[in-house]
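Contributing: when you submit paired examples, paste them exactly as shown. First protein:
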Amino acid sequence: MAVASSSLGAIAMPGELAVRVKAQMVERGLRIGPILSHRHAFRWTFLVNPDIPDDPVIYAQLFRAQISVTRTGTQIALPAPTRRHDGFRRWLRMPMDAYRPCGTEVLDAVADCGVVADRPWFKPAT
């Protein structure tokens, strides 16, 4: 287990969507961070740097698309280090270093896949 904090977050979504999101990120030339699969739930989790604003409008829009974003203090279930538990969660892309993409980059890829209508997490620089 890991705990979501100011430096670690997670975005979980249906596996079918996650495949498209990952492809969209690759197509845009973005670096992919750690991804894990929840095999029985058919969901993927992207580990991210948590830069998504804490806004109920954003969370509601994502919830309707079956996407969940961890909030600070939430536990993030990681794959077990033993093969015995390999059937529950497994790394699709193991962490190779400390890099994790920004959460907003992952959500932008979700939007590029046509899953959400707008990007309420995007705040232009002033």
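Second protein:
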Amino acid sequence: MSNATLPETPRPPSPKAARRTGRLFALTGAVVGVIYGYDTGSISGALVFLSRDFHLTEAEKGLVNSVLVFGSIVGALIGGKLADALGRKAAMLIVAGSYAAFVALSACAPNVVVLDVVRLLLGVAIGISIVAAPLYIAESTPARIRGASVAAYQVATVAGIVLTYFVNWGLSGGGHWRWMLGLSAIPAALVMIPLFQLPDTPRWYVLKGRTQRAVEVMATTDPEADAQAEVAAVSAALTEESGGSASSLLRTPYARATLFVIGLGFFCQITGINAVTYYSPQIFEEMGFTGNGQNFLLPSFVELASLAATVLALLIIDRLGRRVVLLSGIGTMVTMLAVLTVVFAMGELHGAATWVGFGAILLFTAAFNFGFGSLIWVYASEAFPAQLRSTGASVMLTADLVANLLIAQFFPSLMAWAGAAWTFAGLGALAFCALLFASAMAPETKGRQLEEIRGYWQNGGRWPEQAPAPTPTGPAPEAVL
């Protein structure tokens, strides 16, 4: 695409107006993140009561969760194409409208078959949002606040999970599972109002050849930048990113990087974090806690600790390094799963043992969000060159969601068949494998330029040695007699 016909930069708005627009972009994306987190976690409380109303077996309980994850896989696979074809803004409107419609329908489901169908469709919307929302935020906010804005989306997702547990606790007294599922329809509908008012992203306008509109939006959102130069840079980046294919991921020199992101994505979920998110009331009941007050309120404190761990990781990841954060998080997960195995192996729990189990669940969940949860997308974005970056991230997301599907479907049946002790022992073994895998495969990329990281994979998973200083080519100095 030629940049010679770029229009003149329009007169920029005041810095105050631009900051307001930028914050509106970030806030809108964050609200979608909260809704996504809420819809992911709301089933944990609702499942206790709808299982009784619909007389669900353990396999049927798993299906209520797994259909959502299966839909998410479908949505994630089509999310990128949808965002490219219709626009980031249109994809976000589809997500918000789908959230509002499907959570309302799930709250009105007359039987489990209808509930499963609606949750499948809700999962598709969630999968699209996983792709579209971070993309919309990253491409709409100025470079100086882009990292914080995308990080805010991650924090907002965890905050949504925290919120769902407090809502579940508040509604547990009357068993109001329909309200638990349906409340997020209100903010989902309301967030469509600012979305209609906002433009699409400059990057998408360039993608569609609408460079004049791209310059206008760039000038509106970041008046301190040279809009013409920024749009020209976007156009050049799009040219560089063209041509990446899935088959390229399997060829030298990026086959090792592909193995790394697939393994990291799979281990991220197969180690059991969403077993806690989806089934925490049942886990706490198995642990010896009684009454809805404890079994619904305690998960809220677990997720508050996770939120704090996520924020802490974002603050220190560029100081301590990626490997330190990732390996310490996974190592803590292994330790806490070992503690849970011992606790559940004690048989009937009471007294101090129940609180030891609670502490282990809290630290396990916080450690996940500190390590895996904070780093998985960082590594996905750093492992590949520009032309393969989105494809690589999609591959990692697919591996992540497939493992999530396995946990969602089989965890309750495994708990009923093998018992809690053996179930958590199995998760601990998988977490230990994840620790070995990350120790062997994860590079330390702190402070490295993307070009340097590319060289790491091209060099077979080793940092290239610095080239020696060049030897002077002039005549040798005369010997001093």
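If you have annotations for the second protein, write them as plain sentences, like these:
The chain has a mean pLDDT of 80.
Residues 386-418 form the longest helix (33 residues).
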